[in-house]
User: What shape does this take?
Amino acid sequence: MVSYKEIQASNALINDATAPRVAVFVGGTSGIGKFTISALVATGASTRIYLVGRRSSEERMRAFIQELHAINPKAEVIWTEGEIALLAETRRVCEIIKSKESRLDLLFLSAGYAPFDGRNETTEGIEITQSLEYYSRMLFILQLLPILSKAEAPRVVSVLGGGLERETSINLDDLDLKKPGNFSGVNAQVQYVAMNTVTLDKLASDNPEVTFCHTWPGWVSTGNVRRGVVANSIWGWFVRLLLDPIISLVAFRDEESGQRHLFQSTSAAFGGRGVPWQGKPGQNSLEQQANGLFLVNYKCDCTPNAKVLPLLREKALKKVWDHTNEVLGPYL
Ligand SMILES: NC(=O)c1ccc[n+]([C@@H]2O[C@H](COP(=O)([O-])OP(=O)(O)OC[C@H]3O[C@@H](n4cnc5c(N)ncnc54)[C@H](OP(=O)(O)O)[C@@H]3O)[C@@H](O)[C@H]2O)c1
Assistant: This one.
């Protein structure tokens, strides 16, 4: 485990030279993304953050941005409105960012929730949380890779369940879980976690100039479990009366979660580039110093998941990659 003291010491080294000069946060309108933005801005470093979110959160975010500006006037936070569950909107947002920036240092992806309220699709026909947690995230990466690769130490962080993937996690005959009986809140989360890992692992090996992390945040009391349940259902009551209070008891404090994710977004512990790190280097999915995906858990420890990943590469990668390209093709 990387201790909280070590995390704080590393983040204290973030300054104008080491902070991500340009960062994009998708999912930063609440929870872990928002805590990470607060931690980054609180370093006092000069940084420009594109905070991407849906219109319904804009008013709330305008107040948040004002607070951030008071804390650190050198941090510029740019509200960028977009319905990011939609791939056409994701592409539009990426085009805006690419028209303004020639380089991108950090892409932080944390939108999503577990869909215990059943299968609900976007107007583009994709299950909403699969879009938020997988397709839209991959589209952001593919669209922004050209400017990511122009930065000195570019990094992509996808917050979901890195390290939790298993050999049997992915239903290869039904990647979008559309067939009757295949969809449930649990199946969906398991499938989207593993699809994240399989695709990020390929992107990491194809783009060695970019550091990729798939992180599992542990419990953080953000209200995330309440998002995917119908309020007056049995699940809704179970979550509200039992699960949510238990999570609040065992969860990381908001600030620590933000600091830990800032560490994962900036430290050279992951791949050797970034804020200098004297501790044990994180091991990636190719078990090398660089050029592989970092599966990082809530303790900021890495696992190469060495028994599972080679099997996923052999059995799942081609199907997942081909299907992902089919879905994303019209938006690339
Ligand atoms: N918190 C945990 O304990 C935990 C544990 C394991 C994994 N995770 C996963 O880690 C990720 C981040 O978790 P978190 O706790 O930070 O989540 P969170 O606080 O619930 O934030 C989720 C983000 O997703 C956005 N979002 C939700 N539904 C949307 C929709 N239909 N269209 C567009 N945006 C939407 C939210 O936007 P608005 O602000 O506009 O609503 C928000 O920015 C999630 O995928 C979560 O499932 C969380």
Summary: Residues 27, 29-33, 53-54, 56-57, 84-85, 110-114, 128, 132-133, 159-161, 217, 219-220, 222, 224, 227 surround NAP (CB under 6 Å). DSSP finds eleven helices and eight strands in the chain. The chain has one domain: 4-217+252-331.
